[in-house]
Amino acid sequence: MVATTSTGEGWSSRSAFILAAIGAAVGLGNIWRFPTLAGESGGGAFVIFYIACVFLLGLPLVLSEIFIGRVGQTDAVGSIRRVSAQSKASPNWSIFGAIGALAAFLIVSFYSVVAGWVLYYAGVMGGDLVQAIMAGDPFRGALAGESQSQIQQRLGDMFASPGLLLAMHLVFMGLTLYIVARGVSSGIEKAATYLMPMFFVLLVGLVIYGAVEGDIGDAIAFLFTPDWSKLTPQVMNSALGQALFSLSLGVAGLITYGSYIKEGSGLGPTSALIAVADTCVALLAGLMIFPIVFAVGLDPAAGPTLVFQTLPFAFQTMPGGALFAFLFFVLILVAAVTSSISLLEVPTAWGIGERGWSRPKSALIFGTGAFVVGIACLLGYNIWSDVRPLGFWSLFAETDILDTVDGFTGKVMLPVGALLTSIFIGWKADENLLRATTGLSPLAFSLWRFLIAWLCPIAVAIILATGLFPAILGGQ
Ligand code: PFF
């Protein structure tokens, strides 16, 4: 076995860590997936249940992962091993660090493909904006002169073109790899310090635009008025899964980022800030998208194409649509970059800590590997559209390559990672170590211990079981 070496890298300040961790949490999950799921699941009841999941299950897990990293001071596997040693638990618990690193590697492969679609749309909207400016009408709607079917067809045309998808995937993965290879403080931290303020300015600008030009009243009613009859077991299951994904849990991402915290405790408020910020961004994304969708009388339940087909059409009829459509796709892109670097960082840190590779070598190996897996994912939209990688498994019998990687990581690996984390922290980790490192007040500590030892494992086990055996929920 190779001895675990601390990478010695670290955040330059506490706020740098917080910014980077919020950057990791806020991503496609918040701006693409959350509104999609909220729209499909009928709004209010889903949203309220989701918020409960974030704070009752997600927040205790965020704190647990950061705790492990803070104590471990190295990659996820080595960090868990160190906490185990200090708690007299078996070193085999480090397996969930390895599962997490593998999951992060797989997720970044398709995350980059989806971010590539966003990149393409940012380019299309950017070109459209330039045309509008040249025509002396910079505040016109987006894609002037295109019919709704032409706008919809663009997505199909993009999927049908492997070369286009590949080029976009290459650019996005290349950027991710470059930032990760530069290191924690001069790569990841710097990217977060520039990109996150830009992200928040864009987000607030777009929410105000949606409120002024769109139908904010309908959007608020849709997102916050619960119709409890819509809270079916499937909806609860997807809300729980989304909470894990959105907070970047179960893939050891926060263990890895937490390991670069050099000093100080106060992990409780930091964790709460991450969970609150991530949730606010998801809600704001809903408050940005649905007023626009409703203003034009479109369907909020369009599914994954909401952002790529419904919204561009909505932007067509709105004043300033060309400009704001462009800003909208730039916003998603910025969010995606700060998340993809956190995903690639998990296996990269593993290569550095467990294999003794240099950072550029490790980033290159995993970045290239994820790029190759991503190529298979994007070919699944065209020349390999018949391929069903897990077709022998009824759950994935009809699922294409990208959705299989997404589904397998989201429904299996992520909940397994979260389940093992909660059992490890709830039942195995040394109590004094937990108390001293987290710096929680006695009341907060007892509450955390209860949630992580009881509620999290039970709830996550239910997600896992119902995700794997949908028949439990009465078929899907
Ligand atoms: N939280 C990210 C999102 O919502 O898009 C996705 C993600 C990033 C998951 C980083 C896991 C991770 F380690």
Automatic annotation (TrEMBL):
It is a multi-pass membrane protein. It comes from the Bacteria. Signal peptide: none annotated. Keywords: Membrane, Transmembrane, Transmembrane helix, Transport. It is found in: Membrane. It holds the Pfam family SNF. PROSITE patterns: NA_NEUROTRAN_SYMP_3. This is Sodium-dependent transporter.
